[in-house]
Amino acid sequence: xxxxxxxxxxxxxxxxxxxxxxxxxxxxxxxxxxxxxxxxxxxxxxxxxxxxxxxxxxxxxxxxxxxxxxxxxxxxxxxxxxxxxxxxxxxxxxxxxxxxxxxxxxxxxxxxxxxxxxxxxxxxxxxxxxxxxxxxxxxxxxxxxxxxxxxxxxxxxxxxxxxxxxxxxxxxxxxxxxxxxxxxxxxxxxxxxxxxxxxxxxxxxxxxxxxxxxxxxxxxxxxxxxxxxxxxxxxxxxxxxxxxxxxxxxxxxxxxxxxxxxxxxxxxxxxxxxxxxxxxxxxxxxxxxxxxxxxxxxxxxxxxxxxxxxxxxxxxxxxxxxxxxxxxxxxxxxxx
Length: 336
Fold this sequence. Notes:
Layout: H1 4-12, H2 16-40, H3 47-75, H4 82-111, H5 114-120, H6 123-150, H7 154-178, H8 180-193, H9 201-204, H10 210-222, H11 225-235, H12 256-282, H13 284-300, H14 302-321
Helix pairs in contact: 1-3, 2-3, 2-4, 3-4, 3-8, 4-14, 5-13, 6-7, 6-12, 7-10, 7-11
């Protein structure tokens, strides 16, 4: 009775059996690498990246099972369609390339020090402080707009409009800091694998790190909002103390009741801003280290990312052309 290796090589050609065993070993290796990465890189910022890579490793494992089923039949001395074997072999090969390169990206997170930098990064505290401020700004804008409706004096209206402009400028970046984890996670996923939503692709094409730059600028600008508000208030003649974010509530309202409401909410906004600014000041080295590590990782995986993207694209088109669905078990009919 012929051995499995003899049956496989005798039917498909020399080397097929050994290559089959090696391909299976590679898939098992990539599955273990992914499990190890999950254990070692248990970070919220890469949860979406991990999920998408896990899906690609699962696809490689699904193709493995189909390929194994066909080759096991041949090993038993049975005959299956050689063209189908060749097709699944090619899909198996490219699926392994995708899994290998994407696991390389995960391992690079550890190599460049991003994991350690992220652990030290005050993500939760940053989001908390930024969201506290983000909730107060619309409340302040509402009061300012009510004051604008009541105002008749041109100077008062100018002061109100200046204040509204300042806080409309501040709000988007504060909101970005309030969802720092989600935003940076999206940057990591989109730079590594490309966005799942094609309409987002243009935002991340070209420069390798626009997302990191935007976040870094939001952090930097947050430290300057007080100066910005002070300069604007001075220009329109409504400057006051830092306690009210440099806007004199009496100068931008025409009723004492409205002035009191504005003064109260200005003070709340300034207090919240001061807490955010202190957090940023206290953690400047940690934030800088994290952003530098993220930049290093994005640059380090650039070549790997392109290899993975090309392989994933080829895998998708090849599976479509072959009408192959990795989520369905392939049936191998026996041929005479």
